[in-house]
């Protein structure tokens, strides 16, 4: 009986990774999708699961948060424009996929990377660096650009036919979209990066944590809060977080309970943001926090209101908004 060939796929649920899987599936290869979960991307989501269902493949979530943090902290090949260590990150995902080959009875690993799509991390030299650093070498197949790259073991061994793979190059995704439509795979997310580390605003806030010595796995709750809430820094490692909306307020409440944080502010009568601090605050900082609540509440700082300050009902007078705006500029991390 002919051996059944299997492949593991790095799978975000997006256009390129889905098309890469389809191309290999059409050659009779069984594909298992691996969605890598870090603090900054990946994780259980409806879009990835719907795409896996369309493709008829098994989807596995691979939690690699702790290993990924070592890459984020100290990447061999450095970072891109922001906090994104793309080459090291892709290498780690390939390395872990390689470690899982035996467990899944698979023969090689595929990804949706496209030559030239990202100038810094997906040029020919960068793609080779990824393979070398991962230790996977010729076990990596990139179906969308395979004809423009050195043959992989899957091609050399006849597990897939190189002639049925593609030669896509560059940033345009028109060809991929046309092919997906021809396959009838129409429900896929709009092309674009899903990694927080490529976002300039988020990266600047994360850099604050790094400069304060808090870019560590044990501080991962802060990674979430700097995305969900307004972020104020009083001094090294001393932060205040202010909710932006109902969902943000809920996240703040979750972390307050989980971390047993002593300082918090929320509404006593007027709808407004929830606030927490990861540290004890001075009297001046508490006053600033109370004024922030009023400023971002329904009254916009223009009326006297009551609020709940760490379990105590207190009154905040009409806020000097000009003075507060200057303080906001001093402390807020944009």
From TrEMBL:
Keywords: ATP-binding, Nucleotide-binding. Gene3D superfamilies: HUPs. Residues 230-331 form the NFACT protein RNA binding domain. Residues 6-144 form the Thil AANH domain. One of its GO terms (molecular function) is CCA tRNA nucleotidyltransferase activity. It comes from the Bacteria. SUPFAM superfamilies: Adenine nucleotide alpha hydrolases-like. Coiled coil: none annotated. This is tRNA (5-methylaminomethyl-2-thiouridylate)-methyltransferase.
């Amino acid at each position: 009986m002919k051996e059944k060939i299997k492949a593991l796929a790095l799978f975000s649920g997006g256009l390129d990774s889905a098309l890469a899987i389809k191309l290999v599936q059409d050659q009779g290869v069984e594909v298992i999708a691996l969605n890598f979960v870090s603090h900054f991307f990946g994780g259980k989501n409806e879009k990835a699961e719907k795409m896996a269902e369309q493709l008829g493949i098994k989807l596995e979530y691979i939690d690699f948060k702790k290993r990924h943090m070592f890459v984020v902290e100290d990447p061999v090949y450095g970072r891109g424009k922001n906090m994104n260590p793309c080459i090291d990150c892709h290498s780690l995902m390939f390395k872990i996929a390689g470690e899982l080959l035996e467990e899944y009875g698979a023969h090689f690993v595929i990804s949706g990377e496209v030559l030239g799509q990202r100038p810094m991390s997906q040029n020919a030299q960068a793609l080779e660096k990824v393979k070398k650093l991962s230790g996977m070498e010729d076990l990596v197949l990139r179906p969308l650009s395979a004809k423009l790259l050195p043959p992989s073991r899957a091609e050399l061994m006849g597990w897939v036919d190189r002639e049925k793979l593609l030669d896509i190059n560059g940033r345009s995704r028109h060809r991929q979209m046309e092919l997906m439509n021809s396959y009838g795979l129409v429900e896929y997310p709009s092309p674009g990066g899903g990694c927080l580390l490529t976002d300039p605003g988020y990266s600047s806030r994360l850099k604050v944590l790094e400069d304060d010595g808090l870019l560590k796995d044990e501080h991962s709750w802060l990674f979430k809060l700097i995305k969900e809430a307004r972020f104020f820094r009083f001094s090294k490692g001393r932060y205040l977080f202010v909710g932006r909306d109902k969902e943000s307020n809920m996240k703040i409440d979750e972390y307050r309970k989980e971390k047993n944080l002593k300082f918090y502010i929320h509404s006593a009568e007027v709808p407004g943001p929830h606030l927490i601090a990861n540290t004890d605050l001075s009297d001046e900082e508490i006053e600033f926090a109370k004024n922030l609540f009023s400023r971002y509440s329904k009254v916009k700082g223009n009326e006297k209101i009551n609020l709940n300050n760490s379990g105590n009902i207190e009154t905040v007078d009409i806020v000097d908004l000009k003075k507060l705006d200057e303080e906001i500029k001093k402390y807020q991390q944009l």
